[in-house]
Structures are given as C-alpha cells and as structure tokens.
C-alpha cells in the first residue's frame, strides 16, 4: 500500500526540519543523507521520493534554516518598541545574539559554508541577503544600497568574528565597538 499525499508531505516536512536544524548546528556539510533519513525514521532509499538530489535538499533546508532565523529575530524583538535602525543594530550586535548560534542570524552563521556551496544554495542565501539590505535601507531611511551594504557587512562580520573569539571580554568589546560605530554612522547622516 502506498503512502498518501498527506503522509508524504508530512515526511518531507520532517526531513526539511531536521536538515535545517543540522545545517544551523553544523553547517551544510554536516548533513549526511543516510544519517538524516535515519534520524527521521525513514529509509535512505526513500530520500529520492522527496528530493532529486542532496543539492536540492540542502537548498530547501537552507531556505528553511534562514527563515527560522528571521522568525526568531522577529519574535525576539520587543513588540513595544519600534523596529528602527538603532533597535536593529543593538539587537543584532548583542551578547544574546552572539550566544544564540543555533537560533541567531543564519547569514552570519552560514555565509562561509554557503560561499563554498553550489549555485542553488548561494541563490537561496542571496535572496535573504538582499532582504536584509532592503530592511536596513528602510531603517536608515535611504535608497542608497551602498550604505545598507556597508552596515550589513560590518554587522554580519562583527557578529561572526565575535563568535570565534574565546575571550568573552574581547568579544564583547568587538561587538560594542562596531555597534557604537554604526550608531554614530546613523547619527552622522
């Protein structure tokens, strides 16, 4: 007896959820089809009933991981405060965000992996990068791509580097320095 379409959709959703969690935790290369399918109680052979290739799986799971990160950022925002440039930067370049490796910004967590990935994965992340740039432009009240690109690069870079550092005080200093610089940048415009 074959699986119903609802069962197949449910299995696919479980595969993508697990793969997205693995990607957020260990990067793109951490996903093994065999181990992934075993972790969701499905057979390795059943994988191809859901995806044409590992590349297709990774692109779709990456999309899910990035959307999950964006949803976490929205839910972490204080609903009582407006989402302006200052609140975005203060939240993004914070200890809390730095220490939330599995649930924080997927761009910062996965950019190096995706930069080495195939076209499909890079295209998925590119959409999220462009969305972040557009959000920064709105927050800055500008149509200038350059300003938003510089701010995004500084914020993502600072968050990424702060996560590498083992000296918490030095990591905090890095976040604070870039946060203060970006907030001063906004005030200087």
Structure description:
The protein has 189 residues and is an all-alpha fold. The chain has a single domain (54-188), classed as Tetracycline Repressor, domain 2. 72% of the residues lie in helices and 0% in strands. The chain has nine helices and no strands. The chain has helices at 5-26, 33-39, 54-76, 85-92, 95-98, 106-115, 119-140, 145-164, 168-188. Helix 4 (85-92) runs antiparallel to helix 9, helix 6 (106-115) packs antiparallel against helix 7 and helix 8 (145-164) packs antiparallel against helix 9 (168-188). The longest helix has 23 residues, at 54-76. The radius of gyration is 19 Å and the shape is elongated. The N and C termini lie far apart (66 Å).
